[in-house]
Protein: Aspartate aminotransferase
Amino acid sequence: PSSFAEVPHAQPIAVFQLTADFRVDPHPSKVNLGVGAFRTEDGLPWVLPVVAKTEAQLARELEESTLDHEYLPVIGHPEFTRLATQLSLGEASPGLQSGRAAGVQVIGGTGALRIGAEFLRRWWNPELGGKCPVYFSEPTWGNHLSTFRDAGFTDLRKYRYWDEACRRLALTELLEDLESAPEKSVVLLHACAHNPTGTDPTGPQWLQILDVVKRRNLFPFFDSAYQGFASGKLDEDAAAIRLFESHGLELLCAQSFSKNFGLYNERVGNLVIVARDSAALACIKSQIVLLVRAMWSNPPSHGARIVATVLGDPVLRKEWIGCVRTMAERVKLMRQQLYEKLRQLGTPGTWEHIVKQIGMFSYTGLNRAQVDFLIREKHVYLMASGRINMCALNSHNLNYVAESIHDAVT
Ligand code: PMP
Structure:
C-alpha cells in the first residue's frame, strides 16, 4: 500500500467545484454565476485590448533581444512595484514622497496576503507571534482565513460586517467588535468592492473605523483586489487606503492586478508597505526578501512587464483606464437590468440592494435552500452564500436567471 494510504481526501474548493459541476451539466440554459472573473456580453473572458497590444510589443522586444528571460530581483520588477504602489497610494502619497513606502512584487493578491501574513507573524507583535489575533470581516473572501492560518496564525477572529435583515453594512457591530479587539491585533480590511457583500463603508464610516484602529493600535492590512471595479475610478477606489496613510499609520496592502487588468492567470500582485520611516522600510523589505527567497525565490516577469508598460505610458494608461470603466459600467448595467426584471416579475422581497451594491458581486440574500433549488432545478450555479458574479449575466441569460430567482423565492 501507499505510504500515504492514511491521507484523507481534502474537501474540494467550493468555487472551483461549482465550476466543475457547471461544466458537466448538459442543460442548455445553464448559467455559472459563481466564478469571480469578468465576462463580456457574450459570456466570454475579456483580454483587454491594451493588454493584447502590449503583449505583442513585448514579444517583438524578446525577438529582437532587447528583452530577455533573466531572473528578476527577488523583490520584483522595479518599475512595476514603483508604478503599482503609486497606483494604490496615489502620486501625492506622503510615504512615497518621503521614501518610507514601497512595493514588493508577489504572486497575485493571494501571494501578497500570504507574504504579508508571514511577515506579520514573525515581526508584528512578536511576543504573541502566531497567537496574535487576526480579525476578518464576517463574511469575507474564503481564502483569507486559509492564507493566514497557513502562515501560522491560530487566533482567527471575526468582526461583524453584514446586517442580514437590512442588507447593509453593520457599522455599529463592526465598530463594537474592533473596539473590543485586544490591542495590537491585526485587522484585514477590504479596500473597496467588498467580497462577497458588494458593500463598502462610506467616507465618514471609514473615518470611524480609522479612529478605532488607531486607538486600539490595530495593524491595518488592506486587501485591494478590485481597484477600479467599485466606482469605475481608480483614485476613488483607493480612498480608504490613502485615508489611513494620511493619518500616519503603518500598513500593508495586498494589491492584485488579476481583475482590473484581466490578468488572472499571470499572477500579478504587489505587496504595498507603508512604514514610519525609511530605515524601518529598508529593514521590512530586507526581511520580505528572505521570505520570498525561501518561498518562490523570484517572481515571474510577464504580467509585471505588461502592467509596468501600461502604467508607465500615458497613452496606454489612458486606454487601460477606459477598459476598467467599461468593465465597471457593464457590471452596473447588469445590476440595473436584473433589478428591473425582478421588479417586473413582482418577485417577493426587496431587491434594491442589487443596484446599491458595488464591484463584481452581489450578495443576493438568497438562502441555502433557494441556492440549492437554483442549482438543482434551474441549472443556475451560484455560491452557497448567495453571492453572484454580476457580469456573468448578459442579455441572453438575464431573463432566465431572474425568472429562476423568482421561482426560487416563491
Ligand atoms: N482578495 C479578494 C477579496 C479576492 O476576491 C481575490 C480574488 N478572488 C483575491 C484577494 C486574490 O486575487 P489573486 O487572484 O490576484 O490572487
In short: The longest strand covers residues 101-107. Residues 36, 108-110, 141, 195, 223, 225, 256, 258, 269 surround 4'-deoxy-4'-aminopyridoxal-5'-phosphate (CB under 6 Å). The mean pLDDT is 97.
